[in-house]
Write a structure and sequence with these properties.
This protein has 166 residues and is of the alpha+beta class. It contains 5 helices and 9 strands, in the order βαααβββαβαββββ. The radius of gyration is 17 Å and the shape is globular.
């Protein structure tokens, strides 16, 4: 059995748990806002959102080998979310999810918090590169940067001192 499958409503609670805890672990030092991290971000309301609007699960895939350990949310050639339960990080789960998204979903780009250096290194190790595009993350003063993956067969070339895709 392949460990990556489409998410279902039965995964709602586990998905919410992974998202909330991974965001707390990785973003608390960036945002420094415990009111949001431990007050506004709660597992039950997020799980209820998934149950009330099952369309939110349409483009979510999970890594499940006995139980769900990670998830990836894709759409229109973009990785919208990629989280692995902090207890199961550094076991190749994120690599399997991103490889699936590249090969099966055709993802080419994503936005990542500029201060999330660990995530940036992870995406770079999978062929994504930083672009010059950046914007503030909605409702915060923090910036997200766009990372893009070159199309297979394309190669950067120098034309008039500007890099273009050839």
């Amino acid at each position: 059995m392949k460990p990556i499958r489409k998410a279902s409503v039965q995964d709602a609670s586990r998905l919410a748990e992974i998202l909330i805890f991974a965001k707390r672990v990785h973003y608390r030092r960036i945002f420094c806002n415990d009111k949001v991290s431990f007050g506004e971000m709660q597992v039950l309301p997020l799980a209820q959102e998934y149950l009330a609007d099952t369309e939110k699960l349409e483009s979510v895939w999970v890594y499940d080998d006995e139980f769900v350990k990670g998830m990836i949310h894709t759409g229109q050639n973009e990785i919208q979310e990629l989280y692995v339960d902090p207890f199961f990080q550094n076991m190749g789960i994120g690599t399997q999810l991103i490889t699936f998204a590249i090969q099966e979903q055709g993802v080419r780009w994503l936005w990542v918090l500029e201060k999330n250096e660990q995530a940036i290194r992870f995406y770079q190790s999978h062929g994504f590169r930083m672009t010059k595009e950046r914007r503030t993350e909605a409702g915060t003063a923090e910036f997200v940067v766009k990372m893009q993956r070159d199309m297979p067969g394309s190669r950067p070339c120098l034309v008039n001192k500007h890099t273009v895709q050839g």
